[in-house]
């Protein structure tokens, strides 16, 4: 059974078709990357899976169950999303504690104090951050909170929308290591959007390259080492990102 | 004392209660650092105090007439003089604080939440909901406040309760507009999207996530509007459509004093000063609150 399965997925915003004919299968426990330049529709695919872009046709199923077009309650316990900008994805007036307890409250889960404390430890945040507000934390700390919020309901699938691109380089490495560790510990499936190829080779098993709303190639992440891409667009993208075995050293 | 303070200002509070108390304490300190806000708060405390303890503070009865002592100028016996029926104006002003406070509190309780919810719902859902709700709001906004209040009072009959209802009905549209504008700025933001993905209902998002972001600007706006509300109430009283005699409402008192304004200036002036002071108090406090209520302002200025 695949964790995420997209069949003939077309997504539109109003009358504009943004994504066309996407077919992707992500296996359970896999880490899969969506790569492409800005405006290629990769974030839109994530939004459609999450339910934030309801205007789609085709088929989306998650852990074997097809999903409807709206945000739904049960779906939340199986799949969560981490957003790109940790400055915009946390409520400015809510403390870390409130943000992390809320999913538990909505789903009627008990033992909140212990769960919040455990989760803070799991994402590597000191307990003294528990009652802090977003403006009292750095970007990296905020992103840890956002990841913690997504994990509160113990989902199996995580949608990551460029989780590190708003952070500076040293913090990026920390967050990537955190994500990698969490995946190993909790057996998560990742679907990650990024335009940073080194991140893909560090984090992911396979990747789909998107261009102008279509998937042009699905390749194993190892292709980033040997450059064995078949599609001309992918080859250009690979070359443009300094596509030779040397870029691995820039990690 | 120092212990208490360091507990409140603890960088890493141990419990939710400590964190909340600490935040309130920080806000209070920031407010106390603003001298004008303190002046405003003192004026309002005096108003509340006068309203609560009117029977003990007032030197005379607010209603008792003494026709032998009519229109006496301010003196040691009557600090603010007496009116045309020989009633002590100071006592009437003190008792009038009760009416003023009641008007202000009731209007705030009725109109602010009403406007807040209508605005937030309208901004959050957008589309047809927005069009209908804002259409209604615009209809109310387009009518002059005092005239609309006059029409309501004329229809419902004069009296303090009807004046309050009339003022409340005419003051919510401004709050609805502000709440809607605020809501629009973050309805598509990622923290709202993230909350939806966690499985929160629309009601929960509006109540727990949208409203808290609107309330601070709303509180400021309400305190600043208090002056206007007092003036409208006084205006209705002045026109004889608000509080009815012999209730010591400030506006009505000015209206009665108008007849003697050239020879016995104190009859109209004293309640006028009370209105000005209280309006100023609310304005000062409102300004102070605006600076304090934004948590991002912490530490700045």
TrEMBL record, chain A:
InterPro entries: AAA+_ATPase, ABC_transp_ATP-bind, ABC_transporter-like_ATP-bd, ABC_transporter-like_CS, P-loop_NTPase. This is Glutathione import ATP-binding protein GsiA. The lineage of its organism: Bacteria, Pseudomonadati, Pseudomonadota, Alphaproteobacteria, Rhodobacterales. It is an enzyme of class 7 (translocase). It comes from the Bacteria. One of its GO terms (biological process) is transmembrane transport. It is found in: Cell inner membrane; Membrane. GO terms for molecular function: ATP binding; ATP hydrolysis activity. PROSITE patterns: ABC_TRANSPORTER_1, ABC_TRANSPORTER_2. Part of the ABC transporter complex GsiABCD involved in glutathione import. Responsible for energy coupling to the transport system. Pfam families: ABC_tran (PF00005). It catalyses: glutathione(out) + ATP + H2O = glutathione(in) + ADP + phosphate + H(+). Residues 4-237 form the ABC transporter domain. It comes from Yoonia ponticola. Gene3D superfamilies: P-loop containing nucleotide triphosphate hydrolases (3.40.50.300). The keyword Cell membrane applies.
TrEMBL record, chain B:
The lineage of its organism: Bacteria, Pseudomonadati, Pseudomonadota, Alphaproteobacteria, Rhodobacterales. Signal peptide: none annotated. It comes from the Bacteria. InterPro entries: BP-dependent_transpt_permease, MetI-like, MetI-like_sf, OppC_N. Keywords: Cell membrane, Membrane, Peptide transport, Protein transport, Transmembrane, Transmembrane helix, Transport. Gene3D superfamilies: MetI-like. It is a multi-pass membrane protein. It comes from Yoonia ponticola. This is Peptide/nickel transport system permease protein. The keyword Cell membrane applies. Residues 97-286 form the ABC transmembrane type-1 domain.
């Amino acid at each position: 059974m695949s964790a995420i399965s997209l069949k003939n997925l077309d997504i539109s915003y109003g009358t504009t078709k943004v994504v066309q004919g996407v077919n992707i299968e992500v296996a359970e426990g896999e880490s899969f990357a969506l790569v492409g330049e800005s405006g290629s529709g990769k974030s839109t695919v994530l939004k459609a899976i999450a339910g934030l872009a309801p205007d789609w046709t085709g088929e989306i199923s998650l852990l074997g169950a097809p999903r409807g077009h709206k945000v739904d309650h049960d779906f939340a316990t199986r799949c969560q999303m981490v957003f790109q900008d940790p400055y915009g994805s946390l409520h400015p007036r809510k403390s870390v504690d409130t943000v992390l307890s809320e999913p538990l409250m909505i789903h009627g889960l008990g033992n909140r104090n212990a769960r919040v404390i455990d989760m803070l430890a799991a994402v590597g945040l000191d307990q003294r951050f528990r009652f802090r507000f977003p403006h009292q934390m750095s970007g990296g700390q905020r992103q840890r909170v956002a990841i913690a919020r997504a994990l509160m309901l113990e989902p199996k699938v995580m949608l990551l929308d460029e989780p590190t691109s708003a952070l500076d380089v040293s913090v990026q490495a920390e967050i990537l290591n955190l994500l990698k560790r969490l995946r190993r510990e909790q057996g998560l499936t990742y679907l990650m959007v990024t335009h940073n190829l080194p991140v893909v080779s560090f984090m992911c098993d396979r990747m789909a390259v998107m261009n102008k709303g279509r998937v042009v190639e699905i390749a194993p992440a190892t292709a980033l080492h040997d450059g064995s891409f078949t599609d001309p667009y992918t080859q250009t993208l690979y070359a443009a990102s300094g596509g030779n075995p040397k870029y691995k050293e820039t990690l | 004392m120092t212990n208490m303070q360091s507990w409140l200002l603890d960088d890493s509070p141990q419990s939710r209660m400590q964190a909340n108390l600490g935040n309130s304490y920080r806000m209070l300190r920031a407010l106390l650092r603003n001298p004008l806000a303190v002046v405003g708060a003192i004026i309002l405390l005096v108003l509340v105090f006068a309203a609560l303890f009117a029977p003990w503070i007032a030197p005379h009865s607010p209603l008792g007439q003494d026709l032998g002592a009519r229109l006496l100028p301010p003196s040691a016996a009557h600090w603010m003089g007496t009116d045309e029926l020989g009633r002590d104006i100071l006592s009437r002003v003190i008792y009038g604080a009760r009416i003023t406070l009641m008007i202000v509190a009731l209007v705030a309780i009725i109109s602010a939440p009403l406007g807040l919810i209508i605005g937030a719902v309208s901004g959050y859902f957008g589309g047809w909901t927005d069009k209908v709700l804002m259409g209604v709001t615009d209809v109310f906004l387009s009518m002059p406040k005092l005239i609309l209040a006059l029409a309501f009072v004329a229809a419902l009959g004069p009296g303090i309760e009807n004046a309050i209802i009339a003022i409340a009905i005419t003051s919510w549209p401004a709050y609805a507009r502000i709440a809607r504008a605020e809501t629009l700025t973050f309805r598509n933001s990622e923290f709202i999207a993230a909350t939806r993905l966690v499985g929160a209902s629309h009601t929960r998002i509006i109540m727990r996530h949208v409203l808290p972001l609107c309330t601070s600007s709303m509180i400021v706006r309400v305190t600043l509007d208090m002056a206007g509300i007092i003036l409208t109430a006084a205006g209705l009283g002045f026109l004889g459509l608000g509080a009815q005699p012999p209730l010591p409402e400030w506006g009505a008192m000015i209206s009665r004093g108008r007849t003697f304004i050239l020879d016995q200036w104190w009859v109209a002036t004293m309640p006028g000063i009370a209105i000005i002071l209280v309006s100023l108090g609310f304005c000062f406090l409102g300004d102070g609150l605006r600076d304090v209520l934004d948590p991002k302002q912490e530490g700045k200025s």
